[in-house]
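Design job #97: recover the sequence.
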């Protein structure tokens, strides 16, 4: 048996054994406690390993990143907020911030808008399950694979040469001129957003379709009997009732847009003014080896994402309060 196989076997045995051992220990401790304190203590004791993992792998790295953002490039000298000030004059960061705002607006609007329309349409066809499975399928592949696929789709060859890219092949077939979709700005940013929207529209469709299934059918039918058109039913009944679900999907896609990295890295590597915050952080860390600036960008990204997380939690609490 190889060392790797031995490690797999040990992990398969050791982890469940440790888990059950911990649970047995927790119950033994609870039996020693007064009866009145057990209901309060049990959840925290059961969650202690998970909270420990979160602390080690999430909270501590977060605190370390904040500390690094206050140090110089070599993480030796305290510079305060100088790294954050330098970001304002950094041309790469300016382009990245602009593109991230475009991603935030367009990706969220396209995926949520198309997902909602498709959810309503798919709900009326016979092959609903098959349609959902096909539309959701792009999300099952990795971002890298999707980036490679779409890079071939947007591939460009000079006019007169055989076009291997699907889009330019279609353009030339109708007598048009091939376009360097991933080179010209801002077309290239739009192409990257389109590739990401292709992956996530199916995700929005599935979530919104689940919410649509929970709407009272009697209310929709009553509106149609009263003479409401399908557009009126959609705009005045379906959309308001799906408001909490739409809010959750919107915040999820907004966070996805702000965290964009893989598609950009694979398709353009941030060249031709396509950098986003994620690629700017990557370049600061691995190209210029400026740990202070890279950490500062990471903190900026965290601050940008926090409002959407807070909004998501607020919507969730409202839903729980209604229930």
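Job complete. Output follows.
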């Amino acid at each position: 048996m190889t060392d790797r196989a031995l490690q797999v076997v040990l992990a398969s045995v050791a982890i469940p054994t440790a888990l059950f051992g911990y649970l047995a220990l927790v119950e033994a401790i609870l039996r020693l406690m007064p009866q009145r304190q057990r209901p309060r203590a049990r959840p925290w004791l059961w969650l202690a390993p998970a909270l420990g993992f979160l602390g080690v792998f999430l909270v501590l790295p977060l605190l370390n990143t904040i500390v690094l953002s206050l140090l110089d490039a070599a993480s030796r000298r305290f510079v305060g907020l100088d790294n954050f000030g330098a970001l304002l004059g950094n041309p790469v960061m300016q382009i990245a911030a602009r593109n991230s705002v475009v991603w935030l607006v367009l990706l969220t609007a396209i995926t949520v808008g198309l997902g909602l329309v498709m959810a309503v349409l798919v709900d009326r066809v016979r092959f609903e399950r098959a349609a959902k499975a096909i539309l959701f399928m792009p999300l099952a592949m990795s971002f890298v694979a999707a980036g490679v696929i779409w890079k071939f789709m947007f591939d460009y060859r000079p006019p007169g040469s055989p076009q291997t890219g699907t889009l330019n092949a279609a353009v030339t077939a109708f007598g048009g001129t091939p376009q360097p979709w991933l080179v010209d700005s801002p077309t290239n940013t739009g192409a990257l957003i389109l590739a990401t929207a292709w992956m996530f529209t199916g995700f929005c469709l599935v979530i919104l379709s689940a919410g649509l299934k929970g709407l009272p059918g009697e209310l929709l039918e009553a509106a149609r009997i009263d003479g409401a058109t399908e557009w009126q039913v959609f705009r005045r009944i379906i959309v308001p009732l799906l408001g909490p679900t739409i809010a959750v999907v919107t915040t999820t896609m907004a966070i996805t847009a702000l965290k964009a990295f893989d598609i950009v890295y694979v398709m353009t590597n941030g060249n031709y003014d396509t950098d986003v915050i994620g690629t700017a952080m990557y370049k600061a860390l691995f190209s210029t080896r400026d740990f202070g600036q890279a950490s500062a960008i990471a903190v900026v990204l965290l601050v940008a994402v926090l409002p959407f997380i807070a909004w998501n939690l607020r919507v969730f609490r409202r839903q729980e309060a209604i229930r």
